[in-house]
Amino acid sequence: MRYWLLKSEGDCYSIDDLKQDKTTAWTGIRNYQARNFMRDDMKKGDMALFYHSSSTPTGIYGIAKITGDARADETQFDTKDDHYDPSSKKTDPRWVCVDVSFVKKFKEPVSLEEIKHDPSLEGMMVRQQGSRLSIQPVEEKHFKYITEAME
DNA sequence: GCCAACGTTGGC
DNA sequence: GCCAACGTTGGC
């Protein structure tokens, strides 16, 4: 089993939205590296840190679980969708999504500032400057450290 | 296959 | 809203 960090703009789709929806299709990912993680490495049952970008504060707001393996992201074929991709074919979909379910919301978010200053979290990808990747692999020790601290 | 131009992300 | 960092596009 693997661990991940899923980024979402806080005012676009937040942990509260996920809590209300219980499960959502993680659509709209249009970055090859992120897509490859979903397609090749994410498996049903994997756990994820739910990260809010463009929020106050930016940071990890809770935990989610991957509840469905990668499948075609239907928004790529929807001409009205922001993420419509005219060059993707139905017979050979370029983009995929997974299903993500709510697990818990932290009482207090773990802010990016805390993440950056905690020596136990050394090496986390999100600490790197300009780390724009919206789906990042997370080491088990980092996942456990954060989730156990938030019990 | 290089690389400049352009568009987007995301922290501040 | 700014701007640095980064990814993608497209001309050559």
Notes on the protein architecture:
- It is a single chain.
- The chain has 151 residues and is an alpha+beta fold.
- It has a single domain, classed as Roll (ph1033 like fold).
- Helix content is 22%, strand content 34%.
- It is built from four helices and six strands, in the order E-H-E-H-E-E-E-H-E-H.
- Strands 2-5-4-3-1-6 form a six-stranded mixed sheet.
- The longest helix has 10 residues.
- It binds a DNA duplex (12 and 12 nucleotides) through loops.
Point out poorly predicted stretches. Answer: none
Helix content: 10-25%
Q: What is the rounded distance between the termini?
A: 21 Å
How many beta-strand runs? 6
Based on the structure given, which CATH architecture is correct?
A: Roll
Overall geometry comes to globular
One letter per element, helices H and strands E, the order comes to EHEHEEEHEH
Q: Could you give the order of strands across the largest sheet?
A: 2-5-4-3-1-6
Mean pLDDT: 94
CATH fold call:
ph1033 like fold
What's the CATH class label?
Alpha Beta
Q: What would you call the structural class?
A: alpha+beta
Rounded to an integer, what's the Rg over CA atoms?
Answer: 15 Å
**Total of helices:** 4
**How many domains is the backbone divided into?**
1
As a percent range, the share of strand residues is: 25-35%
CATH superfamily: ph1033 like domains
Largest sheet, strands/sense/barrel: 6 strands, mixed
